[in-house]
Amino acid sequence: RPQEPLRNTPIILHSCAANMGFDFKLPEAPVILAGGLGGPAVMFTVTPFRNGLTLGSTNASASAVQLYRSVFSGGLASGWTG
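^ thats the sequence. predicted structure below, dont judge the formating
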């Protein structure tokens, strides 16, 4: 009878790379969730800022307020367009 896997233990995948001394371990669930949810959430949050920086690189005399007015000139959703 096969042995039941232990809970909360890392999963180790063995492949042909294992023959060369490499082991690949999947990250634990909190790390996967942080990357899968946290990463996109941060990118969504900073996109208007990045768009403002892009506009600022072409117009060095504009203030931050002027740049954000340009970013959101087409409405709230326009801050996330490229």
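The first strand starts at residue 12 and ends at 13.
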